[in-house]
Amino acid sequence: MLSLKKIKHYLPLIPKLPGLYLESKVIRKNLPEMKNAPDLEGEILIGNDEFLNVIFIGESTISGVGVATNSEGFSGALSKILSEKLNKNVSWKVFAKSGFNVKKIATEIIPNIPDQTADFIFIGIGGNDAFELTHPESFRENLEELIKNLKQKFPETPLIFINFPAVEDFPALTPKLKKLMISWVKNLQKQMIDVASKERLVYFDPEIITFSSWRDKLNLDLELEELFSDGIHPSKISYQLWAEIVAEFVLNKEKII
């Protein structure tokens, strides 16, 4: 049940909702059906005896929506970079599902992760909660539950929350929806920053990424549409760019490595 404070948070949106609903309905109708990538684990082998065990948890960006396999997506790309930079073999596993918000990840995915060792856990969230307009306080409560559930299974493993999705670049969104999503992501991000700052072994890169800025930084001759598989989800090159951003954050953070 929504508190009065939460209801007040939504009041300014009420006059805009009919138009935004129609716009979102048209967008959903025009988006192609995208599935989770089929491969849920893999290895990067470099020939020595040192191994890193890495787990990836989250929503569609972690489940490989937009690429044929997770090896081509964020999980595979980041695992390869970590292997190269740290000179270690990497064994990676994915526990993610498209369409899941933080609440569902906390209650339906994490409890079903088998007992195992993990050197790092990367979590990708925020997109579905932004699209669902989850209240920032509810998002925080669900986030705290997610962290608590993970720490019960992996008490000494660093939990690294990756950057929120680059909604500013989404070609499929109308200007009005894009403005709303950018604002909502920033509200959720504030909660993420605060929660991470108060939790042991929890890290979050607060940089709001835009693939367009990285395209320009790296002088890539690509149209914005080429950075997305369907106007919402990243393409193979965008997953690679995103993995490089996260790897840079992890490798430059002394407490993580």
UniProtKB/TrEMBL annotation:
Pfam families: Lipase_GDSL_2. InterPro entries: Ester_Hydrolysis_Enzymes, SGNH_hydro, SGNH_hydro_sf. One of its GO terms (molecular function) is hydrolase activity, acting on ester bonds. Residues 56-240 form the SGNH hydrolase-type esterase domain. This is Lysophospholipase L1.
